[in-house]
Amino acid sequence: MSKSPASSPVPALTFNDALTFASRGHSLAAVDARLLLRHVTGATLAQIVSHPGRQLGPVDRMRFESLVARRAAGEPIAYLLGEREFYSRPFSVTPAVLIPRPETEGLVEAALARLPVEGHPEVVDLGTGSGCVGITLALERPHARVLAIDASADAIAVARRNAAALECGNIDCVIGDWLQGIDGHRLSMIVGNPPYIAASDAHLGEGDLRFEPRSALTPGEDALGAVQEIIRQAPATLTDGGWLILEHGHDQAPIVRKLLAREGFVDVFSDRDLAGHERITGGRRPG
């Protein structure tokens, strides 16, 4: 009986080989290649640099090569790693939620600057996604009570996991449609990063946006439809002197300020992001 030929052994792949495979073979940025290698092997950056000849096992090699191919196809690095840092804390992310971005930390900063430091203020985070904004506010102001709302059950599941992982006990994550259903609450603050890109905007077909949940990016053809709805609903739920603070597109601040003023908000302001764009706008309910 003839024997089937033995399969050829898979060549060993060292850390250095893996990085070369990613950069030269798939044109990945060196920082992405190292992040993927760290994710697969558990090695630190120092270990990757100091032990270039360390070999990957067969399973790690297959995982690494698969992730490299997915990243080369444009899949966001945050989804591949399953995590993104926000306000110096790790947040789990999946394709069910937006990837936290540095400019959104400006929303947190604007909220913290206006959130009462005494008492037990009630705060609502609209369109919470991963929960990065609401959880951060809850952790930075442990005396506050935060309600995180999202229309997506999958997003709320991610937010709840993040709240548990970060041991955040002063937040509730619930499914909801903006501020509907919470009439009667007297909120000290409403914050949100609602969808604000028009459905026809070509940017939705570029970069990371191709992979992120479309409902979290665009409200439809009217880019400011969700922003207008939130501004319309907010006065009925805010306390006298309560704040509404929203993130929006880089060129939308003037119209958002007008919308807030039209609904009677005072002390209307806009904050700039690191690129100099007016990215965060808010106002205070009179009283």
Structure report:
The chain is α/β, with parallel strands linked by helices. The protein folds into 2 domains: 13-73, no CATH class; 101-284, 3-Layer(aba) Sandwich (Rossmann fold). The protein has 10 helices and 11 strands. Strands 7-6-5-8-9-11-10 form a 7-stranded mixed β-sheet, with helices on both faces. The protein has a two-stranded antiparallel sheet with strand order 1-2. Helix 1 (15-26) crosses helix 2 (30-41).
Report a brief summary of the structure:
The protein has helices at residues 15-26, 30-41, 45-50, 58-72, 77-81, 105-114, 132-140, 153-165, 225-233, 253-262; strands at 13-14, 55-56, 83-86, 89-92, 122-126, 145-150, 171-175, 187-192, 238-247, 266-272, 278-284.
Radius of gyration: 23 Å
Strand content: 15-25%
Q: Within the largest sheet, what's the order of strands?
A: 7-6-5-8-9-11-10
Individual helix count: 10
**CATH topology group of the largest domain:** Rossmann fold
Q: What is the count of structural domains?
A: 2
In helices, the fraction of residues equals: 25-40%
Q: Outline, from the CA principal axes?
A: elongated
How does CATH name the architecture of the largest domain? 3-Layer(aba) Sandwich
Largest sheet: 7 strands, mixed
Write the layout of secondary structure elements.
Layout: E1 13-14, H1 15-26, H2 30-41, H3 45-50, E2 55-56, H4 58-72, H5 77-81, E3 83-86, E4 89-92, H6 105-114, E5 122-126, H7 132-140, E6 145-150, H8 153-165, E7 171-175, E8 187-192, H9 225-233, E9 238-247, H10 253-262, E10 266-272, E11 278-284
Parallel strand pairs: 5-6, 5-8, 6-7, 8-9
Antiparallel strand pairs: 1-2, 3-4, 9-11, 10-11
Helix pairs in contact: 1-2, 1-4, 2-4, 6-7
